[in-house]
Amino acid sequence: MTTIAYIANEFPSPLEPYVIDEITELRRRGAQVICCSGKRVSPNGLSLEERGFWKETRFFQPLSDDELLQAARRLASDRHCLWQLLHPLLWERGVSPGRRIRTLGHTLMGAALAEQLAPLNVEHIHAHHGYFASWMALAAARLLGIGFSFTLHGSDLLQRADLLSPKLRACQFCVTVSDFNRQYILRNYPATPAEKIVVQRLGVDRVFSRPAAAPAGAEDHRRFCLLSVGRLHQVKAHDFLIKACAALRDQGLDFICWIVGEGPERPVLENQIKELGVEGLVYLIGHVPRTELANYYHYADLVVMTSNSEGIPVVMMEAMAHERLVLAPAITGIPELVEHQRTGFLYQPGSLPDFISAVSWIQAHKASLAGIQHAAAASIAASYNRQRNLRAFAEQFLARIPQSEADYAHPVLQQIRLSV
């Protein structure tokens, strides 16, 4: 049985259901998967399934004094490995002093991860996202003498590529979610062997029935309804959407806009809604459980995305699977998902006039766009089926862990080989 440690910055997270999906699929194929999280998360707000994973997860922030001491001893006991880890912190270009200091702390956390995994015969470590947990995975794998891999989505590659060069050099393989990302990596990190970078798309379930219950505010559905689903974070650029709503109001469009999600930008967005006088048009719905999102998709006329950075957004996949019209910026891997005027609509990134023009045109022609809605659902069923893509992920993942790596991870097998 292959034993894998799987780590994310924060796990389990309702915002990243695909992490649980991948762990579950690997286990279904007989792998033993040890769940790890860089940060300690609260069980409050987690679903029953997520709580089950929370109970088994090993958390590494904050570390106790004893754990820090043991981690420091492990690092000090292997000077060659310590130098391999410290070298990029000292000499890698384009890394701020603050980032170097934080990564030194993440190196200690990686040593603590190695301490916990050492007696468990772990054969491989995988990190989801390229944030600090991926450095922990690299450090732990080096200390344990095993391989590591990681998954890159969007911002972790395009906006916060922290020490990505040494991670790409050290990893056995890197999974990413779009052809755009793969080409970006090979173009910007040319020393990376092309065979290391694997494109594996995410996916969603097919929609077989429509929800019966209407969400709160559906009595306003006589008006054209815009829907945005995403964390209230600067990268999602909800302020752009609210500005657009004010302009659409000024043009006389009769509409409402639901923004589903929670996050640190809520106070800023609330103030903006008041300042622009769109309180009766734009509603910050807050967090909605994934089981209830279908209601919002069903009652929306147009699902919009205004992000500054994305991988290939699952939100767009879900909306298209529900046969909703979608409008998104033509950035990164989004054009691989949304084919302009065939399965949805794209607008020029950052262009408020282009966004407003697109919304106005779609509202005026909505009655004639059923063909695009059907094509969107068919495209998702063909290329972004969750179960099929999970199977492909697990097959590629397990095939890329060398058999010799698994064998040498077991002391008994090592002795057998040495005696032959």
Structure explained in plain terms:
The protein is of the alpha/beta class. The protein folds into two domains: 3-203 and 385-419, Glycogen Phosphorylase B (Rossmann fold); 218-383, Glycogen Phosphorylase B (Rossmann fold), CATH 3.40.50. Helix content is 48%, strand content 15%. The protein has 19 helices and 13 strands. The protein has helices spanning 17-28, 48-56, 65-77, 79-91, 97-117, 132-144, 155-158, 164-170, 179-188, 238-250, 266-276, 293-299, 314-321, 334-337, 352-365, 370-383, 386-399, 403-408, 411-419, and strands at residues 3-10, 32-39, 58-59, 124-128, 147-152, 173-176, 197-199, 224-229, 255-260, 282-286, 302-304, 325-329, 345-347. The chain has a seven-stranded parallel sheet with strand order 3-2-1-4-5-6-7, sandwiched between helices. It has a six-stranded parallel sheet with strand order 10-9-8-11-12-13, sandwiched between helices. Strand 11 (302-304), helix 13 (314-321) and strand 12 (325-329) form a beta-alpha-beta unit. Helix 10 packs parallel to helix 11. The longest helix is centred in the N-terminal third of the chain and has 21 residues, at 97-117. It is elongated.
